[in-house]
Each structure stands twice: as structure tokens, then as C-alpha cells.
Design a protein that fits this description.
heterodimer, A: 195 residues, mainly alpha, Rna Polymerase Sigma Factor, Chain: A, Arc Repressor Mutant, subunit A, 2 domains, 67% helix, B: 152 residues, 6 helices
Chain lengths: 195, 152
């Protein structure tokens, strides 16, 4: 009796090797699972809308996977994905602004993170918590918000964030510290930690 | 200095961790992206299917387009020239026959020689079409012959 053991693809190089060797389905699954949180949360921070963020995340993965064979490895996959996602978000925001200009889209910029499928209570609590965290993050300037999110949630090193955002490590540290100080004040206003 | 900053950052991060527990944040994210992998696979398959259908369409169109192009080229360049040349040759033969029937051979040759040596010489010989029937269109040939008839 033979047993087939399928090893999880942990590192970027494993995923790339598997994808280039032809087992694309497995590589794609691991690739998406590894970076879905990362891509989705960036999209949500920029678009402030659950559905838009999900659509953008899906498009970003399709785009990235289509050009995965051309990925030269000059930057890390995370940096590469960050850039694709931010560009996609900025395009979407530009499109929305244009639609709003012609009054085809709604005016308000409120967060819309309620899950499309109503689920158990926990999901609702998670969504509410998540929604409030992102509302608080939206009060920060873009650079501070991105530095905080990449450092705290995505646990990137300052060097990696510096490559992504193009800011010096010293500047990033200052941004992170200021972001935390502001959040300590803002978060209780959204019922987080103040109870 | 770095250690001092590291200590400070740890303290700051601990404070924020109490407000935003990472695990809770990740759980809520996972709720939102739980179907993303499936959606991406479906999108990729759809894209692949569209690409396949496009290639199939192109492969279907290529033979038809090739046949149509060859036919078009044939009718534009080959068929047109052949029919024109036949028509022109027939016209020229008739014109020369009628000319020669009106004059005796000696007279005819004398008229031709005279005209070729006259001021019309250049006009006649400049027109390469007289010698290169293949390159002439029917209207060119007709015009030349009409000119020659007029001269004669």
C-alpha cells in the first residue's frame, strides 16, 4: 500500500516552483490562501467597502497568477502583490469618483463591511469589530495607516515596509508610533477597548 | 539605541494588542475571504475557457479567411489581367486587320515606317506598353491603338 503525502507549500519559492512545474491548481490554492488576508485587507483599507474589496482581491489574484510565470523575483511576492493591489484600488477609486461626478453612484463613504451572507452570531460580531477597526484606521493619514497595518497586522519588517512604501526606516518608525498614539485615542470612540 | 526603540515598540504594540487582538482581527478577515480561493479558481477557469474559445474561433476563421484572400487576389490580379489581355489582343488584331484591309501591305508598312520616324516616334516608343503587352491595362492599350488609328 502506498501513501501519498502532500506537503503544504509554505515558501514563495515552493509555490513558484510548483506553479512553473505545471501543477498550477495546487500552487494557486496555496498562493491565494497564503496572501488572501493580506490582499483583501489592503483593498478594504483603500476602498472601505466589503464587496469592492472582495472583487479587487479576486482581480488582483487572477492578474497576479496570469503573470506568475513572468515573475522575476526581484522583489518579494508580498511587495509585488501590494503594488498590484494598491494600483487596482486606486483605479477603482478613480472610477468611482468619476461615476460620483456624474451622480451614478451613491454619495456616502460609510464602511460597508457587513458579510453578504448572514451567518452565525460570531460572524456578525467579527464583522462589527472589523468594521470599527477599519473605521478607526480611516482616521489616520495614508502613510501612517499603511505603516501601522503592514507592521502590526501583516508583521512585515521595517525594511520590507520601506521597500513597499519607499520611506526610510526611521520615518516608518515615527509613523508607526504616531499611528498607535492616535489609535489609542480613536479606538475607544468606536467602542473598542473603552468598555 | 535600537534596543531602546525595540523596547518602546514592544510596549506600544502590547498596548494596541489589548485594544485590537490580532487573532480576532484575523478571524474576521478569514470570514470575509473564506470563498476567495474558490472564486479565483472559477475566474481563472472562465478566463481559460474564453481563451480556448477565442483560439478555436481563430482556427476556424483562418482556413476560410485564407481561401477568401487567395480568391480575392486571384480575381484582383490574375483573372482581371488575363481577361483584359485577351480582350485587348482581340481588339488589336481586329484594328490592324481592318487597317491592312484598307491599304496594301506596302502602303501599310510605308505609313507605319513614316509615322515611326516622324514626330510621333517618341510618343509611340515612350509608351512601353506597346512592347510589354503584359503590363498594359485594356484601356491603355485601347488608347494607344486608337491614337495609332488616328495617326494612320
Amino acid at each position: 500500500m502506498t501513501t501519498t503525502v502532500l506537503f503544504a507549500l509554505e515558501s514563495d519559492s515552493d509555490i513558484l516552483r510548483e506553479y512553473k512545474s505545471g501543477d498550477t491548481e495546487r500552487a494557486v490554492t496555496f498562493f491565494v490562501r497564503k496572501y488572501q488576508r493580506f490582499v483583501y485587507s489592503i483593498a478594504l483599507r483603500y476602498t472601505k467597502n466589503n464587496e469592492d474589496a472582495q472583487d479587487i482581491a479576486q482581480d488582483v489574484f487572477v492578474k497576479a497568477i496570469s503573470s506568475l510565470t513572468n515573475f522575476r523575483g526581484e522583489a518579494s511576492l508580498k511587495t509585488w502583490l501590494y503594488r498590484i493591489t494598491v494600483n487596482a484600488c486606486k483605479n477603482e477609486i478613480r472610477k468611482k469618483k468619476l461615476l460620483r461626478f456624474f451622480d451614478f453612484a451613491r454619495e456616502d463613504e460609510e464602511f460597508d463591511i457587513i458579510s453578504p451572507e448572514p451567518g452565525p452570531d460570531q460572524i456578525h460580531v467579527d464583522s462589527e469589530f472589523y468594521c470599527n477597526v477599519h473605521k478607526a484606521l480611516a482616521h489616520l493619514p495614508e502613510k501612517q495607516r499603511e505603516t501601522f497595518a503592514l507592521r502590526y497586522f501583516d508583521e512585515l519588517t521595517y525594511e520590507e515596509i520601506s521597500n513597499i512604501l519607499g520611506t526610510s526606516v526611521g520615518g516608518l518608525k515615527a509613523n508607526y508610533f504616531q499611528a498607535v498614539q492616535k489609535l489609542m485615542v480613536i479606538l475607544p470612540q468606536y467602542g473598542i477597548g473603552g468598555m | 539605541m535600537n534596543t531602546k526603540y525595540g523596547d518602546n515598540e514592544k510596549k506600544v504594540t502590547d498596548n494596541i494588542e489589548q485594544l485590537i487582538p490580532k487573532q480576532m482581527y484575523y478571524n474576521s478577515l478569514d470570514t470575509s475571504v473564506r470563498n476567495l480561493s474558490v472564486a479565483v479558481h472559477e475566474s481563472l477557469q472562465k478566463k481559460q475557457r474564453q481563451k480556448f474559445l477565442f483560439r478555436k474561433k481563430v482556427l476556424q476563421i483562418i482556413p476560410i479567411a485564407s481561401i477568401a484572400t487567395v480568391a480575392l487576389l486571384y480575381f484582383t490580379f490574375f483573372y482581371d489581367n488575363v481577361s483584359n489581355l485577351e480582350h485587348a489582343n482581340h481588339g488589336v488584331t481586329q484594328d490592324f486587320e481592318s487597317l491592312s484591309s484598307q491599304h496594301s501591305t506596302a502602303e501599310f508598312n510605308a505609313i507605319i515606317d513614316e509615322e515611326l520616324n516622324s514626330e510621333h516616334y517618341d510618343f509611340i516608343y515612350q509608351d512601353d506598353a506597346l512592347f510589354l503587352f503584359d503590363d498594359m491595362t485594356s484601356s491603355d492599350l485601347q488608347t494607344t491603338v486608337e491614337d495609332l488609328i488616328a495617326i494612320l
